[in-house]
Description:
Helix content: 10-25%
Strand content: 25-35%
Number of helices: 5
Amino acid sequence: MNANLFQRDIQWILxxxxxxxxxxxxxxLGNISIxxxxxxxxxxxxxxxxxxxxxxxxxxxxxxxxxxxxSVQINRHxxxxxxxxxxxxxxFGVLTHCEVALKYYLYxxxxxxxxxxxxxxxxxxxxxxxVSRLIxxxxxxxxxxxxxxxxxESFVKGVIFYPHGLESPTTKPQYLSRDHFRGTWLYARxxxxxxxxxxxxxSICQKPHWLSPxxxxxxxxxxxxxxxxxxxxxxxxxxPLMLSRLYEQQGKWLERERLFIVANQWPHSSQ
Length: 271
């Protein structure tokens, strides 16, 4: 893995505002310095697992935390009840259980079968369902099965994508931070709408690198090239595409916005 990409993904985590607000405690990580030659070779293409591994790196380097356990399986009577993401001492010596997540949700204004307007690429995953599981299942696990923990924290980062050309809604779900990172989503059939900035270019974010902007100068796409790629991709696949929309400034590519392209039938299973 490119060391520069590793460092940029780490910095993205530190810069990204919390996706959740509320009464629960949130893990706070300062501007932790990761050695320049430090790198992490992801052993997974799963974005969430990659994010979790990077958080482990940050906790290991944090002067305010002492990481004790990671991915603690809770098993009872031959059944797996769940997993505790992290157990650590904080700067005050308090044993803490923390659940982490990296989530991407699309604002879908129409009523739909999910009962939510903030829906994941997999429509069975909604913002409300994630919050409910975090509060009612994941965090309470340690209260029952790891009673030595005296504090409970969450660390949830991510992006909310809003439909191209529509204003953001004035009403947000409970617990969704108003300061969250924002992106834009489009159906595959509407990619031509991106012609509003004809000089922009595009780069595909490859899993698990859905965190910092993907700027691979060997894979920069013009809008016509992007249209062809999207058409070919969705002709035989339904998985969404994450993109960086880029512009050039003083010889450098900078991200204008993060884009999410979904199949024309999303969030439904068929047209």
